[in-house]
Amino acid sequence: MKCPSCHENRDRVIDTQTTDDGTAIRRRRECLACGARYTTYERIERRPLKVIKKDGRRVAFDREKIRIGLEKACEKRPVSAEQIEQLVAEVEQEVYRRFDREVPSQVIGELVIDRLRALDSVAYVRFASVYREFQDVTDFVDELKPFLDRRSRRRSAGGKRGS
């Protein structure tokens, strides 16, 4: 494994852990040349899976694209890298469980959105605005309506208890 700092090929494993979902091994490493520490993941190599894009193109499934999209949506939000990684792993597992060779990109997007909604509402709206291609502010309002309705129901229920 090459060090991301100095690109030397000598390191030692400091710590090894299985991820929460059991699909990968996380290793903390230390470069013997420069002392930098970094994390690597070891995963089972899965059968090739193609994603069918909206325009009909077929591209290789890439969990990194999901992670990058989630990192952008969760920027400056109280969502940890571990939570993002867990969400990516859950989506990846579900996709491989449900599909053999090809999966529509819409399915992946909905799997991400469903999980992100429960994790962080602001990150959810950010992700949804890109994924669902919001055109104007009314699209945001429509997406936020269920959150606002729930919040107003909680407030009104709280007010009744205090009376």
Molecular structure report:
With 163 residues, the protein is α+β, with helices and mostly antiparallel strands. It folds into 2 domains: 7-45, no CATH class; 46-138, no CATH class. It is built from 5 helices and 6 strands. It has helices at 63-73, 81-98, 105-119, 121-131, 137-162, and strands at 11-18, 24-31, 37-43, 50-52, 58-60, 102-104. The protein has a 3-stranded antiparallel sheet with strand order 1-2-3, with no helix packed on it. Strand 2 and strand 3 (37-43) form a beta hairpin. Helix 3 runs antiparallel to helix 4 (121-131). The longest helix is centred in the C-terminal third of the chain and has 26 residues, at 137-162. It is globular and about 60 Å long. It starts with 10 loop residues before the first strand and ends with a helix.
What is shown here, in short?
The protein is α+β, with helices and mostly antiparallel strands and 163 residues long. The chain has 5 helices and 6 strands. The chain has helices at residues 63-73, 81-98, 105-119, 121-131, 137-162, and strands spanning 11-18, 24-31, 37-43, 50-52, 58-60, 102-104.
